[in-house]
Amino acid sequence: MLRYLVQRVIYMLITLFVVVSATFFLMKIVPGTPFNSEKLTDEQVEIMNREYGLDQPVPVQYLNYMAKTIQGDLGYSFQFNNTPVTELLSERVGPSAFLGFQAMLVGTIIGIFLGVVAALKQNTWVDYTSTFVAVVGKSIPSFIFAGLMQYYIAVKLGWFPVMFWEGYEYSILPTIALSMFPISIAARFMRTEMIDVLNSDYITLAKAKGASYLQISVKHALRNALIPVVTVLGPLAVGLMTGSLVVEQIYSVPGIGEQFVSSILTNDYPVIMGTTILFAALFVFVTLLVDILYGIIDPRIRLAGGK
Amino acid sequence: MEKILEVKDLEISFHTFGGEVQAIRGVSFDLIKGETLAIVGESGSGKSVTTKSIMRLLPESNSEIKGGQILFDGKDLAKLKDKQMQGIRGKDISMIFQDPMTSLNPTIKIGKQIMEPIIKHQNVGKATAKERALELLRLVGIPNPEQRFQQYPHQFSGGMRQRVVIAIALACNPKVLIADEPTTALDVTIQAQILELMKDLQKKIDTSIIFITHDLGVVANVADRVAVMYGGKIVEVGTVDEVFYNPKHPYTWGLISSMPSLDAKDEALYAIPGTPPDLLNPPKGDAFAPRNAYAMKIDLEEQPPMFKVSDTHYAATWLLHPDAPKVEPPEAVKRRMKKFLSEQEGK
C-alpha cells in the first residue's frame, strides 16, 4: 500500500508539472500585457516589464517561474496591489471550498438516496418523481436556481440573506443552487447501477438465503452500485470546490471563481498560474482519493493496486 | 415414502410486451424424503421457472402464479407472505445456482456470505456461526478454510466458488435443496468433482434434492427419479431405470438419441428436428406433436393425459392409449438402452 501511495504521489507531481508548464506557455501565447492601462506611458510599461522580468525571453521566464514555484513562492499579483498570490488564494479559497464541499455533501447524499429509492420502487410515482428532479437539476443551469431562489426565498420571503458572506446562513442558498447538479448526476447513476445490481445473480442468491428486503438493498446492493458512481463524483467535487463563478457572483461570495476570471481578463499572470496550480493539485488529489475509495469499496481493485 | 414437497397443477405466466407467456402449464410432481429428483428438458421447457417458483424467486414485477399449489410442511408456498417466505428460504429450502462466477457478492468476504444465513435462521452468535461456516468450508472440500474464510470471491476459481455456493446452500441443513444446473458453467473435470461432492454430501446430510439439468449423463449419475419437461409440462416421470431403460414418450426418445456416445461409430448424432413451442400461443394439442415423428391426429387436437406405465412411471403421450398402434422406440434409443443395461450389469 505504501509503495502504491509513493508511486501515485510521484505520478501526481509529474501531472502537476505538465499542467503547469502547458498553462504557462498557453498563457504566453495569448496576446496582451498586464500593463495596458492608458495612463501608462510606453516608458513606464517598459520599466514595469523589466521589474517583473517580462522583458526576458519566454523560456527564461518559464525557468525563473518554475524555480520560484518549487520553493513555494507563487509571486505577486499585478492586479491586486502586489499582494502575494498565496495570500490572495488562501483568502479566496475558503468560501469556495466550503460552498463546494457542502454542496457536494448535500448533493451526493440526496442524489444517492433518490437514486436508490427510484431503483427500489422502479416504475412507480417515486421513480418518476426522482427522475423528474434529476432531469430538472441537470438541464437547468445552477445560476437560474440561484437567481430564482434569491428572488423568491431571500427577497420575497426573507428566510435567508440575499447576498454576501457573513455567516453560516449566507451559505445555504448558494449551496442549494450548487447541489442541484451533483444531485441529478448521483441520482441518475445510482438508479441505473442499482437496478443493474438488483438484477444480478448474487442478489438472487441473497434472496435465496432468506435475506430481507432491507438487508438485500443495504448490505448487498448499495456497495456494489456505488463503485461506478464514485468515478463520476470525484471530478465533479473538484469542479464544485474550486468554485462556481456565476453562483458566487450572484450571491456576492468572495470566492476563487470570480477572481480567476478577472485575473484572466487582466493578464494577471501570477494569479492565473497560482489558481491553475491550485485547481490541478486539487484535481489530482481527488483522483487519488477516488482511487483509494475504490479500493475500500471494491476488494478486486484493492488487490490489483496493492501488490 | 414420505412426501416432503408436493407441487400440484402449477401454472405460471409471464406478462411481457408481446402478451402472456404461459411458461408453466399445469406441472405436478412430488419430492420424496431423501431422494434426488432430476428435472430434465431443453432450454425454455420450464425447469428453472418451476424451481424458482418453489423458492418464490421469480421477478414479482412480471411473473404470476396463476394456479396450483406448492405444498411444503403443510403450507402452500404459493400463498405465503414475503416475510414468511424469508423464513423458509435458506433454512428449509435452499438453492444452488448455475453460474458460480456471478452468484457470489464480489464485495463481501466469503466467510461472511456463508455466515449470513446461519445468523439469520439459527439465532446464534457470530462466533458459533463462524465455527459452523468453517465446518461447512471443510465439508465442501475447500483447503485452508481459516485463510479462505477471509478472502473475497475473486480469489477463488470457478469450481471453488461453486463449492462455496454449495456451502451457503447447506448452511442451515435444508430439507430441500434445489440445484439449478450446478455444473453447466464449469468445465468437465470440475463438473465431475462437483457431482461427486454433491453425491457425497447427500449421504452425509439428510436432504432431498431437486436437480435441474439438461445433461442426461448427469441424471444417470446422480438421480433416483427423473421428470422430463417439455413446453411447460412434465411429459414423463419415473425412476432413472424406468426412464432410461423403458422410455415411453417420443420426446424422451429424442433426448436419449441425441446423447453423444463413444461407441456409436459412423452414426450421425441425432438432433430433435424443429424448435420448442411458442408459449405465447401454446398449441391446442400436445406441444411436442409438430416435432414428433410418431404424432397422430389426436396429438394435434387434444393434450394427452398422464398414462400410467407402472406405479412410479407415467408418461403423457397418446401412444400409451389402448387404442394407439404399437410403436417401438427408434433404433438409436434401443441401442443405448442395451448399453445402459450392460453397464448396469458390469457394475
Automatic annotation (TrEMBL), chain A:
Stored InterPro entries: BPD_transp_1_N (IPR045621), MetI-like (IPR000515), MetI-like_sf (IPR035906)
Name a single GO biological process: transmembrane transport
TM stretches of this protein: 9-30, 97-120, 132-152, 172-190, 225-251, 271-297
Residue ranges annotated for the ABC transmembrane type-1 domain, each copy included: 93-294
Q: Which Pfam families does the record associate with it? A: BPD_transp_1, BPD_transp_1_N
Q: Which SUPFAM superfamilies match?
A: MetI-like (SSF161098)
Localization, UniProt: Cell membrane
Q: Under which name does UniProt file this protein?
A: ABC transporter permease
Q: Which organism is it from?
A: Peribacillus glennii
Automatic annotation (TrEMBL), chain B:
Which GO terms of the cellular component aspect does the record hold? plasma membrane
Name the GO terms of the biological process aspect: peptide transport
Instruction: Quote the subcellular location field of this record.
Output: Cell membrane
What keywords would UniProt list here?
Answer: ATP-binding, Cell membrane, Membrane, Nucleotide-binding, Transport
Which coarse location class applies to the principal site listed for this UniProt protein? membrane
GO molecular function terms listed in the Swiss-Prot or TrEMBL record: ATP binding; ATP hydrolysis activity
Instruction: Look up the domain of life of the source.
Output: Bacteria
As recorded in UniProt, coiled-coil segments are none
Q: How does it sit in the membrane?
A: Peripheral membrane protein
**Which residue ranges run through the membrane?**
none
Q: Name one Pfam family in it.
A: ABC_tran
Q: Which residues are in the ABC transporter domain?
A: 7-256
Task: Keyword check for rRNA processing, yes or no.
Answer: no
Could you say which protein family the record assigns here? Answer: Belongs to the ABC transporter superfamily.
Q: What is this protein's record name?
A: ABC transporter ATP-binding protein
Organism, by scientific name, is Peribacillus glennii
